[in-house]
Amino acid sequence: MTSTSAAAAAHATVHGYPRQGQHRELKKAIEGYWKGRVGADALRGTAAELRRGNWQQLAEAGVHEVPTGDFSYYDHVLDTSVMLGAIPARHRAAVAADPLDGYFAMARGTQDVAPLEMTKWFDTNYHYLVPELGPDTVFAADSAKQVAELTEALGLGLSARPVLVGPVTYLLLAKPAPGVAAGFDPLTLLDRLLPVYAEVLADLRAAGADWVQLDEPALVQDRSPAVLNAAARAYRDLGTPGDRPRLLVASYFDRLGEALPVLAKAPVDGLALDFTGAAAGNLGDLAAVGGLPGKRLVAGVVNGRNVWINDFEKSLATLGTLLGLADRVDVSSSCSLLHVPLDAAAERDIDPQIARWLAFARQKTAEVVTLARGLAQGTGSIAAELAANRADLSSRAGSALTHDPAVRARAAAVTDADGRRSQPYAERAAAQRAHLGLPLLPTTTIGSFPQTAELRTARADLRAGRIDTAGYEERIKTEIRDVLGFQEKAGIDVLVHGEPERNDMVQYFAEQLTGYLATQHGWVQSYGTRYVRPPILAGDISRPEPMTVRWTTYAQSLTDRPVKGMLTGPVTMLAWSFVRDDQPLGDTARQVALALRDEVDDLEAAGSSVIQVDEPALRETLPLRTAGHAEYLAWATEAFRLTTSGVRPDTQIHTHMCYAEFGDILQAIDALDADVISLEAARSHMQVAGELATAGYPREVGPGVYDIHSPRVPDVDEATALLRKGLGAIPAERLWVNPDCGLKTRGWPEVRAALENLVAAAQEIRGGL
Ligand code: GLN
Ligand code: ZN
User: Fold this and answer.
1) In what ranges is there compositional bias, type Low complexity (predicted)?
2) DSSP-derived secondary structure for 518-585
3) Which of 214, 453, 522, 578 would be a feasible disulfide site paired with 166, CB 3.0-4.6 Å?
4) How far is the CA of 740 from the centre of ligand 1 (A)?
5) What's the CA gap between 305 and 580, in Å, rounded?
6) Which residues are catalytic?
7) Of all protein residues, whose CA lies closest to atom 4 belonging to ligand 1?
8) Quick check: pTM over 0.90?
9) ipTM associated with this complex
């Protein structure tokens, strides 16, 4: 193992690339296919064209080995289920009749069959389709897609490496199929699964694969000895010498930790490791296990999850250290570039100076190539790039956008007292009861009302200049009047204005805060054909003027009942944006919190007695390893309290969360010190109410009794039964009646009926108390 030869061989690669195409051609083709406007062959043609375009782009940029098989019509985990023959029983007929339609049926469901469940891919905002497995699952290799895409890339004369979800991660991401006992552990299927992987690997070898990458990101989480043993067994088995491609086992998003010695010892041919962000500890860990003698190391030094340029000097230093630790060191992105937008050069509205700090997939690819060249040929060969990188980094560090003295001084002056309400909960609750005069079991909603076609048309008309701002605002006001009129008539106690002016709960605020950037083309896949354009937290955050006060006071002027002010909380603002990498997340959260605190205070001053600060993302940004949880929850809950603690004791602070599992953050929910929390609970039959009660939660709770993810309208009896269940855990003085989440995706007829039933159920129970 000599470092000079390791360096001389340094190649550039990436783990995967955005699938959608420059103009989201893939979305258009797939949605066209669903609507019957695009034929199957046309769809396949568009897909092949996009793959070819991506590979050519990568190759022209100087990437030596392109990834294949990372492309997907919907999701790569679903593709893996197909590759392994793990088709749920309810979809088998559809898949047999037409593989493409059957595939989309698994992804989206049909009139008659439910789709696979969808959930977040680790701590990213990408969602995958959860494999459904059981003791009777029979795996069968179907390598057609992987082989075809490899063949396409090889046909272009490129050196290509198929990328597959690895067997251990696949099983760890799976859940028991419907009808299978919840205690079933998919990992027990490993021995049955490995021969199928071996078959796919052999097929890829036969098709010309030299290397195959197996992604095992699930191993970066805290894992039991049983799981680590399974990983050891899997790679001992797949690594058995024979006619197989060389195996590269990849991990990303955090350190491999205890799994690193396991994989380092396994008879595989290389490891791809993430050396960015939370995973930077891999460097020390790798040295501690004695490196990877005899193996290839693919070093992920270009962050595949943020939008910022790389620090070349820092990366070269990391790469230099790694040269002494492996037989061959290649340079890569830390993970697939699927998680970042395609091309920063497409952004015309961003100040050119600031645009130079941005790196999307194309720019990150160029960075990987530059670093590989610097490693192979010495830094002299990339002198110009190094100088430009240094200049851009220092322009970012010295910019007034990233360093606003007023924002920094205010954040530095924050004290514990700023994050504490002036009175303890019990006293506040009494003051709020007197001030608000609400009945027992008060009824409310979570904020949004249906985003109707008229509202979308109004926004489109405004953008196209068919109406002016005044005309647009008239339409919003009309909507607010309708929404309030309905709520009053239905007998709801705490009203909302319905959020008709908001396109999105994060973007709406991001557009009004200084320090946030919006992109024009920065689309990132969320799931299937759904793409989002997360705003970018680029600089220090401040609020030039109130953001919601005008609409809230307009709504309040129309009614005597309390209208809730509605804000998105600081943690959710971070979770659904691209964040800064030049300061700790907690610092950014604090800046956002202080800007929102001003909004909360202004709402109160304008007459709001009830203010809701939504934190649906509090749970989802928990660090992957439990070692990081305490620190995260400390700054996250502090940011929430900082947002909400400036108000009088008799002003009631609500919060809202909507993911079914709260079990591991009950303490953090308590630490928010919100007066009222509404939570998703309808599907889990009020489970969360019991969990909070058991944990001794002392404040008011609104466990949702209307599942807004479904078009079903709960009748009065059903809502009453759910409320009775809630009353078994939470006393009547502290129980609220509300839906699971906002109503923006529902239609008016359902919403009307469901809310009327909710009010009737609350009245029925009040009558009996
Ligand atoms: N207030 C928001 C709404 O009702 C909350 C959305 C959410 O929790 N995701 O739409
Ligand atoms: Zn919600």
Assistant:
1) 1-13
2) --SS--EEEETTEEE---EEEEEEE-SS-SSHHHHHHHHTT-SS-B-EEEE-HHHHHHTSBPPSSS-H
3) 214
4) 9
5) 11
6) 709
7) 742
8) yes
9) 0.99
